[in-house]
Each structure stands twice: as C-alpha cells, then as structure tokens.
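Tutorial handout. Part one gives the primary structure; part two gives the three-dimensional structure as tokens.
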Amino acid sequence: MARRLVTSRSTKLLTETRDCICELRGGSTGKSMSYHDWKEVDMKHLLACMVLATLRVAALAADCPQQSKDANELIKTEQAWAKALDTHNTDAVACILAEGFQDADTSGQLHDRNAALARVPKRRPGQENLTELDPHVLGDYGYVRGLATLTDPQGKTVARVRFTDIFAYRDGRWVALAGQETLLAETK
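Part two.
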C-alpha cells in the first residue's frame, strides 16, 4: 500500500514537471515528451519545474483535512462523505477515497475509485441521512457500519442502505479502502 501511495505521488510529480517544462518551451501540456525533448531541457528549467511541481503536489494533499486517529473522526469522515455526495463535491470525496478504493454497490457491482468519483456529479438530488453509526478502530485501520436513509428533495424516503466502510489511517487522516452496501426492503 505504501509503495502504491509513493508511486501515485511520483506520477503526479512527474506529470506536473513535464507540464511545466512544456509550458516553458511553448508546447501544450498533457502530451508525452520524447527522449530527445528531455535531452534539450536545461538544468535550470528542470530544477525550477521540479520545485514548482513538488509544491503543487504538496498543496493538493494539504487540501484534505488532518484528523486524529479515533472513532469520532471515523464518524466525522462518514458524515463528510455523505455531505460531499449530497452537494456533488467531487474534490471532498477524492480526499476520502484511497488510491485502490473499491465499492460494492447495492446491486453487487464493483466500482473503483475513478468510477466512484465519476458518479459524484451525476447523483440525483436528495440527501443522505446517516444513523446507527458504529465505528471501530484497530491500530491504523478502522471500519464503520451504519444505515444511510436516502431522501428526495421533498423529504420522501427513496432507499435505506446498510453499509460497511473500511478505512486506513494514512498521512494524518482516514481514507476509505472499501465499501459494501446492501439495499434494505421497504418497511410499511
């Protein structure tokens, strides 16, 4: 897991450096650079771009809130996640979902982190009310079981979902590794 985190940050750093160099050279960002292109980059520009890239990547990570390693923070993370989904805040959800995150939805479909983030802006209007939250902390890992009641904008209950989310404590905050959701039958 730590290796994947380092690889992800290294990839972001390299991408930021490449884009900076492309901008300095008058090219478009986001395209790959050939070996010949890299050879022509002078050391001053490379160093300046690497420093800027490092600051940008650090700033992105700093946008995610720091938390203590306790059960109350797990509850706050779940509540922040629900609020971010309600408000279609993809950046806030991105802070919560770990690289490698997977979710099994109510129909049994698996979604990775990218798919989960892509679905955030497409969510129907409504609100997710969390109850019966039961957090557990086991060293650097934790899980939360709870009940999400989904309501439409008029306040009518649309669905009740029992969930379990698994977290890891990394870089001073809780991040979700996996989630499992079960749709509950309607009660009369």
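Part three, for discussion. The first strand starts at residue 97 and ends at 104. Residues 2-62 form one domain.
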